[in-house]
Amino acid sequence: MASRIHLSEHFTNGKLLRFTLPSIAMNIFASLYIVADGFFVANFAGKSEFAAVTLIFPFLNILGTIGYMFGVGGSALVAKTLGEGDRDRANRLFSMIVMVSSTIGFLLMVLGYIFMPQIAGMMGAEGKLLENSVLYGRIFILSLPAWIWVYEFQLFFVTAEKPRLGLAVTVFTGLCNIALDALFLIVFKWGLAGAAAASALTQIVGGVFPLIYFSRKNGSALRLVKPIWEGRSLLKSCLNGSSEFMEEAAASFVGIFYNVQLLKYAGEDGVVIYGLLLYLSLIFSAIFVGYSNGIGPVISYHYGARNHWELKNLRKRSINIIGITSIAMFILSEVLARPFSALFLQDGGQLLSDAVHAFRIYSFAYLFTGMAVFGSAFFTALNNGQVSALIAFLRTFVFEIAAVMLLPLLLGVNGIWCSVVLSELMSAATGAIFMLALQKKYHY
Fold first, then answer.
1. Segment 376-405, tens digit of pLDDT
2. Is 188 helix (H, G, I), strand (E, B) or coil?
3. With a threshold of 0.85, does the pTM exceed it?
4. What SS3 class is residue 45?
5. Residue 10 region, left (φ>0) first, then alpha (ψ -120 to 50), else beta?
6. What are the sequence ranges of the domains in the chain?
7. Which of 22, 181, 292, 362 has the maximal Cβ count within 10 Å?
8. Residues 56, 343: Cα–Cα separation, whole Å
């Protein structure tokens, strides 16, 4: 069995991949059970129900990614505190972050449940689509506090030097989701409500287990203890993680724009195709997000310890790994375009052909997504939330929203598929410019 890797070590390519692999796999499996949910809905509930999930899920994801903000920003702060040698304070900060995020989760759960019909209506849903969107959204949102725990504990497992345990939890919960989907939709025939219930129960399993683990005496670097209230540290954590939250939430916000545009230019079928693109994108993006999450605490640790040579080593190796992976993803996406679409659109026909055409265009975005994600995460790990947030803001609220609003005017539906390619290209370039500009300041 391979020896345990510590944050303080020097990282070769092999050691870097070994350390980040659990985080990558964790994110992939977390995405896979969302994809599995879509597969069961598309094939055992119906096309209209699948469109409803695609429509309402971006809103739900915005709420869930609050946990990502606390996890990314909090883990960077906690890892830096561990690097400074103050383990007791690190645990108390960790506990404060979990307590605050839990409170926010319960509050948003109540508000989201009450106003779900109005929210779905604002996204353009009408008639049966509105009814289905509200049904799925209200059942799923009951698990929101646990979903926030899932997001943040994925990050804290890495900081606690227990990435493999985090992976095991994610795999187990993913298998639970698939089993519950099969039971509720195929055996019990509960339709869309069954799919929502399966996903909600999955989040509860995935969130409660790490809460129990960190609440008890364990062999990791972190444990939930009596929290200390440090308002400035909490604010710094939120600001530092705001870039990743903004990136994830804005991606969902952009998804809402996509759905509105698609309902206008292509109707319900366009929303269905966009759902397919999102599912494959979830898996591929999870690799880049997982790598960035996995290496983030390492960068934060060496930044706190002032190991400038190792910071240079981590940056150079990461760019090489991401570049090679990006090319592989582009090729794989082109190859998988038809078989992946056929999994969800088994009746074939024109809708399948249109989906494959959209995939052929969308695939080019994967050449730039990795650098766009890592550029923001790199500065989060360096505890520079301002630059990280700016990169994330430009990527979504400026580049992608502008593209999805303007390109369809010139290219019609094809402009919607092209918009993500253009925005990812510009985001990758922005991240590279900031890395070059701040190289001397951080000595990487």
1. 889 988 888 789 888 888 887 889 889 989
2. coil
3. no
4. coil
5. beta
6. 13-442
7. 292
8. 22
